[in-house]
Amino acid sequence: MENENLKEQFKHIPGWGIDVDWENNPVYPMKDIEEDDKSASWDRPAQQITSKEVQRSNERPKLPAVFGDTLPPAGLSGQLRRYAFHYSESKYRHWLPLLLADRVNEVEGIVADIKSGVFPNIWKERGFDAHWKYDRQKLIKNLATVAAVSIGVLILFRRK
Amino acid sequence: MKAMNYRGPFRVRVEEKPMPQILHPEDAIVQVTRACICGSDLHLYHGMVPDTRIGSTFGHEFIGIVREVGPGITKLKVGDKVLVPFNIACGRCHFCKQGLFANCHESNAMATAVGGIFGYSHIAGGFDGGQAEFVRVPYADVGPTVIPADMDDEDALLLTDVLPTGYQAAEMGGIKVGDTVVVFGAGPVGIMAARCAWLFGATRVIVIDHLEYRLEFVRQYAACEAYNFRSMDDPVLFIKRITDWLGADVCIDAVGSDACGNAMQTITGKKLLLQAGAATALHWAVNAVKKGGIVSVVGVYGPTDNLVPIGNVVNKGITIRANQTSVKRLLPKLMEHVKNGVLSPKDIITHRFALEDVAEAYQMFSAKLDECIKPVLIPSTVN
């Protein structure tokens, strides 16, 4: 009866209680494991073949059947990434070099752009047109802050 | 083909890229007709996720038309219009057999914690994403689902991640009839989590955020209470006060690593990257939930460490449940809810951009300009 009262009370909310199993509440799904699902082996899909360098977590003995092979490691950032993958996902020696590699890779990207004759259009890449259109005041404030901090850092280093 | 191209934190552009190829018998090539920018894409965009390589194409929420299939594909055919779950899952490994499609063990070479995800850095497998004209879709007989003729394309688009993630957040909360549920974050996933909490019999749903326009939206869309944490000294104390000083039965973290609201978390997590993002929402969730309550986490965090009050988890006897969403497991039920009109996910879409304007789209979503809630990208190849 109480449930009926609740259904009446919340009838303005479409679907209220629609997924309640009244006999088995709450309905958080329990693990659904068949006996043969406990095995650590299964009927593996065909193995993807690649000629590219694909990095593999050392917490798995072999490549998964399917993997992404975009953007193989290259340059200094690639060396850092190769180093990182010697260590497990439990180690800072895995993650910190990857974070560093990302920052190095950003510089490599700018250098590669310039080498190919494209000077990065930072205004456009940062989508500042949208910011200019919808919140010009905040954009000007943000750019002024960045400029002030940069000039401050430059002055600090010159003094030293 | 044209594709979004990541150039570093806060910098993206559209560039020509080679057409994707069939690399495995169970691959398909899908021509993208709609792709969302997800709140979790912003973690990549902000440079917070390790191994996000320059040149990556993001995008794990997309629909499209099958243009080519590998020889191992039996269920899909060229011309099918499909929604593609964000998880890349084989459907037959130890984890997929348990319905844990987000944790597939045959799709991510570079990490074992998570299965492959389209366009979500190399720690999620190094796959290109769907913010492009075409995309390679592995295990195309497992994940992709043909969009029913009577379903709106944009409803289908939000079934690839946002709606299932909001639903799973509520489901993992183990909500019982009569429960009070607090959702931290009024972004797209938080909005969906609040809406779905009612389906499990919650009798009070409260959303906490700091953006007034989103709070107003969620009040209307999810028929819930919504409060601005900027207007209170201490959100945890506020929640205790409005829940008879006991706390909420269930707290949902729908924010993840980009949270604001705590200076120390913001500086150490987002500015200095000394932790894997700011864990402010999770911190509040643990402290605001009732003793013996459940904290459900769908907000995305980086793979290293976060400052979380684990002592209070122990002392309060809290259960924490978390996972990436296993979209495929939830699709049949959620497609029914959408078809029956119980849920209308497309209503949260606020902005549509040409793929070529991807940089402006990211900036608008990231800076919360023009009351942006959910932006969609449309390739110019779509009629």
Oligomeric state of the chains?
heterodimer
Nearest-angstrom radius of gyration of chain A?
27 Å
Q: In percent, how much strand structure appears in the residues of chain B?
A: 15-25%
* Discrete helix count of chain A: 6
Structural commentary:
The complex is a heterodimer of chains A (160) and B (383). With 160 residues, chain A is mostly helical. Chain A is built from 6 helices and no strands. The termini of chain A are far apart. The mean pLDDT of chain A is 91. Chain B is of the alpha/beta class and 383 residues long. Chain B folds into 2 domains: 2-161 and 326-378, Medium-chain alcohol dehydrogenases, catalytic domain (Quinone Oxidoreductase, Chain A, domain 1); 163-322, Rossmann fold (3-Layer(aba) Sandwich), CATH 3.40.50. In chain B, the strands form 4 sheets. In chain B, strands 3, 4, 5, 8, 9, 16 and 17 form a 7-stranded mixed sheet that branches. In chain B, strands 12-11-10-13-14-15 form a 6-stranded parallel sheet, sandwiched between helices. In chain B, helix 11 (358-366) links the parallel strand 16 (351-354) and strand 17. The mean pLDDT of chain B is 96. At the A-B interface, helix 1, helix 2, helix 3, helix 4 and helix 5 of A face strand 2 and helix 11 of B.
Describe this structure in a few short sentences.
The complex is a heterodimer of chains A (160) and B (383). Chain A has 160 residues and is mainly α.
